[in-house]
Amino acid sequence: MATDREAFGLGSLRSFTIAEGILLLVLGVLALVFPVIASAWVTVVVALAFLVGGIVGWVNGLNRSRRLSRWHCFWRLVVSTLFVVTGAWIIQQFSTGLVPAAAQVAALAFAIGIVFLVEGVVAAIVALSHREMAGWGWGLANGIVTLILGLLIVTMQAGGLLTVLGILVGISFLFSGVDLLVFSAAFHEPEG
To answer: Which among 32, 83, 102, 179 would be 20 to 30 A from 18, CA to CA?
Structure first.
């Protein structure tokens, strides 16, 4: 039997999980209603992640330089520099106006389409090469759906590319919100 303190802790966790679920549902709906704005935010977040990742990579590379070969250290610093330059360039494009910012959003969406194409082909090949295993059909279905999504994205016109990231984020947030409200909150119910 749970003590009052444990019950309070579980109740607090459940309340927090429900609040997070509601927040994700609201953000998901907003991303679907305003997909271009959501796409721009995703692009900025990716740019910031590149910047932070590059700076952390530089610090880590320099701290470990005595333990790494010069060649290894050099290439780690090159990659970190590319991260910083790419992140800074994307952010700079957003500060120079709407057209350069839209080009960045479209480029990121197109890159995701390419990733989906490759991922879909790989998933389908893996599934087909393991037909003796239970569930291989789900792997094949995943590969086909991912491949179709990739084809849809890479064949979109520029205006469509501006909405893709926002729609993907919106759908993901909606599903995550429903999961938190319906499934995850059940983990924090007090035992009776």
So the answer is: 32
